[in-house]
Design goal:
This protein has 452 residues and is of the alpha+beta class. Among the domains are: 45 residues, no CATH class; 102 residues, no CATH class. Helix content is 34%, strand content 16%. Strand 19 and strand 20 form a beta hairpin. The longest helix is centred in the last third of the chain and has 27 residues.
Length: 452
């Protein structure tokens, strides 16, 4: 029988060379490995809980239509903070008076393997509906920016998924593998999604809840799982023809667990029916459980997350309710956001210069006592202006690879914050504080692990 053995060597290069010169195969302290399917890792892994985790549904099997976020290859040109600036740039790009060389130099647009500026300009100049392509894009957490969403200027537009995000929808964002120690790579979106919306290290995957088509065909899954009936239906007003991006096998599994009927749009009453949005909210809550993230951290590193199902209808209801609250917060649609925590009341330029977080004991020392050191927990955007009342755990909160409050401001270095920007940042503070609270409540609701 073949044996697989493993050894590692840590330290400085000089020490490694010395050790390698002194030791050989026979004197190395080997550790036996048993690589397991389907991953066959050749390094030690803590897989004691894998059987428990594997009973859950891979998100890729539950929501089969997915792609990574869009990759423009020219964010600086097709994405902007203000639509007026973006519209002016695209208008200039189409301007036949300007030469290709002038446009290329003005907007720094080199050719790539799959994109040539002259051909792209010619295509866009010929389109009468070119103005229809100004859309919104989730660029980073809580950072929605105007985008010119057109394959003429975006190389990887992911239309198979993103066309569904151009209509009323929401999508789960997550990663196929997580390469940081935070395991916080979950977010929700209503718009087109950039590949770095969750992390700059790897592209996030976008799982839309609904898919749109011209067909009026939808499905209703009866309890019992095996009876899948297709029926014609009239779409809800303003929604067009859409169906849930949920596999029939997954819906049947949930229906069997809950002993409820599935309705194909919106939410059920959770007495006799459940809908796609109930499922979405439930999964969003589970994925925000601190225990889930810690317990299954080893597996979140290697594949899409898996969702445990419950047969406890009361637990499902409670988690769906918390998940709905989280979704509303992360989409900036919650009424709670209008109860501000952070204050921004010092007059000044509003220009973002150097972003710093300072608590009371640090203010006087760091700023030379300019303000008497009387404030507490401030996020400074320049030497004199700050958001006050931001708690340390809120300031340090991560979504994916980003420390959210710091990242949002640093991306605006050199810019002047408008009234809307200041208001939006205050809402982010509320959203993160409420997220921390809800995450703890989700853990308190789940009676034990694994979820049953």
């Amino acid at each position: 029988m073949t044996k697989v053995q493993y050894a590692d060597l840590w330290g400085l290069r000089k020490a490694k060379y010395k050790r390698l010169l002194e030791d050989d195969f026979t004197t190395t302290g080997w550790e036996g490995l048993e690589p397991l399917a389907p991953y066959f890792f050749l390094v030690p892994k803590e897989f004691d809980l894998y059987g428990e985790y594997a009973r859950g549904w891979s998100i890729a099997d539950a929501l089969p239509l997915t792609s990574t976020g869009i990759k423009t290859h020219r964010d600086h040109f097709v994405i902007d903070f203000e639509e007026d600036h973006l519209r002016a740039a695209i208008t200039a790009f189409r301007n036949k008076i300007l030469s290709d060389d002038e446009v290329r130099e003005r907007f720094t647009l080199p050719d790539t393997r799959d994109w040539r500026l002259p051909e792209a300009r010619a295509r866009l100049q010929s389109r009468e509906d070119w103005e229809d392509n100004f859309k919104l894009c989730l660029y980073r957490p809580f950072d929605i920016r105007p985008i010119y969403y057109s394959a003429d200027v975006i190389e990887l537009a992911r239309p198979e998924v993103m066309r569904h995000m151009l209509r009323r929808n929401m999508a789960l964002l997550t990663m196929r593998r997580i390469r940081t120690e935070t395991y916080t790579h979950f977010l929700v979106a209503r718009h087109v999604v950039g590949k770095d919306a969750v992390s700059v290290r790897d592209s996030c995957n976008v799982f839309p809840l609904y898919v749109y088509s011209d067909s009026k065909e939808q499905q209703r899954v009866k309890r019992g799982g095996s009876a899948i009936a297709l029926a014609l239906f009239e779409s809800r007003p303003g929604y067009g023809s859409r169906k849930p991006n949920l596999s029939t096998a997954f819906v049947a599994a949930v229906a069997d667990k809950l002993v409820l009927d599935f309705i194909p749009d919106g939410k059920g009453d959770l007495e006799s029916t459940f809908g796609p949005e109930d499922v979405f909210h439930y999964m969003y809550a589970v994925f925000h459980s601190p225990t889930y993230r810690e317990r299954y951290a080893e597996f979140l590193k290697i594949d899409f997350p898996r969702l445990p199902l419950t047969s406890d209808l009361g637990l499902f209801r409670a988690l769906a309710e918390k998940g709905e609250d989280l979704v509303a917060l992360h989409l900036m649609e919650s009424r709670t956001l209008y109860q501000p925590i952070a204050k921004f009341h010092v007059k000044g330029s509003n220009e973002v210069e150097k972003v710093r977080y300072l608590e009371t004991s640090e203010v006087s020392e760091d700023l030379g006592g300019l303000d008497g050191g009387v404030a507490s927990r401030r996020v400074y955007i320049n030497k004199s202006q700050y958001f006050e009342g931001v708690e340390p755990e809120v300031w340090g909160f991560h979504i994916g690879g980003y420390q959210v409050l710091e990242k949002w401001l640093k991306d605006r270095k050199g810019r002047t914050l408008s009234y809307d920007d200041v208001t939006h940042y205050g809402k982010i503070v509320v959203a993160l504080k409420e997220t921390i609270r809800l995450m703890q409540e989700i853990d308190a609701i789940i009676p034990s692990w694994p979820i049953e």
